[in-house]
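Many introductory courses stop at the sequence. We go one step further.
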Amino acid sequence: TLLKAVVSTQSTGKKQLEEMRCQLGERDAHIENLNEQVAALTSQCHGLQRDVTQLQQNESDTDKGTELENVELKTQLDALREERDSLSSSVFILEEQVNQLNGD
């Protein structure tokens, strides 16, 4: 009976060992799956970071373009103001001449 008990214990131990190996295999497969998910998410993050960097560069380029455009518009505005002032001065002179001619 002692031999039967030892054999039974060994058999039970082998079954438990086999169950543990099976559980370890399942755990390893789960870990591998999680590692693949982490790799996919990491890749997505890198892609998003590249997109963010590109958008920031585009925004910077747009800001530089807008700044240059604003300088050009200011220059044009200044030129138009000078032209307006010159025309206003000419109109004033012409009005004075008309008034003189009319005898005012």
